[in-house]
Amino acid sequence: MRRTLARARTPLRGLAGLAGLVVLLEVLPHTGVVSADYLPPASDIGRALWQMLGEDAFWTALGDTLTGWGLGLAIAVVAGVVAGLVIGSVPVLRAVTASTIEFLRPIPSVALIPVAVLLYGTDLESKLLLVVYASFWQVLVQVLAGMQDVDPVAEDTARSYRMGSWGRVRYVLWPTALPYVMTGVRLAATVALVLTITAELVIGSPGLGNQLAVAQTSGAVPRVYALVLVTGLLGVAVNLVARAVERRALHWHQSMRREGQR
Q1: Is the pTM of this model over 0.85?
Q2: Which of 47, 99, 161, 224 is the most buried (most CB within 10 A)?
């Protein structure tokens, strides 16, 4: 009973904090502490959001953002998992690629914006280039860490049973690496969304970021905040979905069992 009440209090506290923020945003512009030209009241932001929800252009932009995010994330996850399994399975290959990975991984994805524009202009491909590059490293590094965490006893047992490469990957490497893979996917999902909005905002690719840039240029301040709110809610939704997928994929893992007992 106490555990149920404790679980119920957490979302209620979150809603209370959100309600407090809305009240603060409504009151501040009216007090003169902050100019309404730069921070409109929450009621104005809500009206702009409601108006936006009735526009076809908004839903088209949302679809463009989700398309870029989903395609980029899918490509990055598949490439990261495959590359991680291959590199992690071959010690020589891991040693040869270590310096290259450490050199390429810290390069900021936004530094590739001129390259993306030069190659693809404002098309979807330019957005995908940034999203895939940023998300790929999140997955690859986690998969490589999972491959290093494989129990040597389990590997020796697989060899003693003369398991082939596929059997070793399926029964030894993959169960150990899967928690790391899901962590990488969760991190990559958030990074992919950030880079998608950034590409739309800076490059001008179709999507919510592009609409945000247009609203800022035209001086539609309430609409700017409404779009920022939408992107924030989108980020929360992405994180919740990633968490749910992680819990479903790792229902057998001890970390998920401990979490369920809290």
Answers
A1: no
A2: 224
Per-residue model confidence (pLDDT) at position 56? 92
Contacts (Cβ under 8 Å, ≥6 apart) of 178:
146, 249, 250, 253
16 located within any domain = no
Query: Is there a contact between 84 and 101 (Cβ–Cβ < 8 Å)?
Result: no
Rounded Cα distance, 112 and 78, in Å: 21
Assess if residue 2 is contained within a domain: no
CB crowding 233-251: b at 16 or more within 10 Å, else e: ebeeebeeebeeebeeebe
Domains in the chain, number: 1
- Is 259 part of any domain? no
The pLDDT of residue 81 is: 92
Q: Give the tens place of pLDDT for each residue, 18-75.
A: 777 777 777 777 777 777 778 888 888 889 889 999 989 999 999 999 999 999 999 9
For residue 206, being part of any structural domain is answered with yes
